[in-house]
Amino acid sequence: MIQFSGVSYSYGDRPLLSDVSLELHPGSFHFLTGPSGSGKTTFLRLCHLELAPDSGQLEIFGKDARSLGRDAIAQTRQRLGIVHQDTRFLDHLTVRENVSLPLVVAGRSPETEEENLAELLGWTGLADRADARPPELSGGERQRAALARAIITSPDIVLADEPTGNVDWDMSLRLLGLLVELNKLGRTVLIATHDLNLIRQVKSQVQARVLRIRDRTLQLAGTDL
Amino acid sequence: MIARLLRPRAAPGDAHRIVPPTGITAVLTAFVAATMSFLAVFALALLFSTDRLADRWGGALAQTATIRISAPPEQTGEQIDLTLAILKQTPGVESARPLTSAEKAGLLEPWLGPEMPVDGLLLPELIEIVETPEGLDAEGLRLRLRAEVPGAVFDDHGRWRAPLIAAADRLRMIGSGAVAAIALSLAAMVTLAASAALAANTRVIEVLRLIGARDHFVVRAFTMRFTLRALTGAAAGTLLGLVALLAIPRAPSADTFFADLGLRGAEWAVLLVIPPVAGALAYIATRLTAVRKLREMR
Question: Tell me, what's the ipTM?
């Protein structure tokens, strides 16, 4: 589904990722770890086509990322759900409207998916905040809303950058449970996190690979987690 | 519960809601559309009025002609009879009659005033001709009169009519130009407002792009928003223009231009076209701007 072949990426003169090769298979579950500034977010943004590799080849759904035009990138993103650390919403719309926005963009009617929407808002603990505006939400609520928005269309791949960074342990498990359920339905999940407890918890439920960015390269983490 | 169900949500049909409804560009677009539509009402009224004026001036004078008899008093009667006989045989003449002294005095009254005694003046005799709709052969009549009635001078009012028609045509051109200028100004202002709105909503566009919105979707969201604003503003401006037009006091004389300023009959229906045209202009201007801006954002 996503294949990195010798991909390198630099911010100006500073190389961040070097000769990264990886294949994310359909239905796989990956964690991406590494110290702050190691390139986890950059890796996710490459997967989401927000950045283009300096060198190497990146293929998404069998297509070379460099060959994709604006509309093709948009269509590819409709098959990807992403949770950024800096959650971004349309502040004049309600949480419900923001969460259902990917449905609107994909040409699906939120009205016909009302049941799913309500269930998702309930699962993420946002049922009673559905009519609030994003500026009224706490950090944790924003993260939960971002996760709900990322998975409302049941995308083929879910990319999440520290999705539980601002939520308590119970809610973290609840949110991860949601991603595990999606994975069991055949969706690919890639989560960037440095919360090892969380990784251990998920590994007890699904077969997850843990990747670590070290010295600008991607390595398969050992079993010492 | 009912209010909740009726509350509008972001759906394909109301993609424009994705663009924030507030901001100076919203007010600016509606205000400009209202102002331009208000002016368009008057420009159209001017256009129709000049059109009618040109028709009236041209039409009124085109259907009449005059023959002036300048002859020694002893020959005047004979020449009038001869002229009337010729006119009776001339195709295109519906009627012809000599003007009375009182009518001739009436023609001079605007210049000499009502108190001026004109009985003592030696005035030429005038024969008024009313033409049939087909008109007469002016040149043929002129030649015949020259040959048979030496004191008769035929005047088909051409030299008076030409500058009047030219003036009315010029006014009509100015009216058309004003309508075109108003339309262009509206398009220019909406373009500016749309550019400003797109620049101010970069974050909205980024969020939409991140969740997979194609350019077409973003363009539609902005064009819908601006078209609706322009439509609303234009409807208000047209309504105000209509009220203002009705409030213009009528001039007492029906012959003046100002007596004719306004719209008549079916012409009023043209006002219904203003809001859709303003909306269409806003749609085109916003669409072109949005497409261009999104390409720049690449």
Answer: 0.88
User: Which of B9, B211, B225 to probe the A interface (max A CBs under 10 A)?
Assistant: B211
Confirm or reject contact between A149 and chain B (CB < 8 A).
yes
pLDDT tens digits for A176-218?
Answer: 888 888 898 899 999 999 888 888 888 888 888 999 998 888 8
Q: How many domains does chain A have?
A: 2
A-chain residues within 8 Å CB-CB of B12? 104, 107, 109
In a domain, A84, yes or no: no
Beta strands in chain B (DSSP E): 64-69, 93-98, 125-131, 152-155
Domain containing A11 equals: 1-79+155-225
CA of B227, closest CA in chain A: separation in Å?
Answer: 20
Winning range, highest mean pLDDT, from A118-127, B23-32, B197-206, B251-260? A118-127
SS3 A52: coil
Instruction: Looking at the structure, tell me whether residues A35 and A123 fall in a common domain.
Output: no
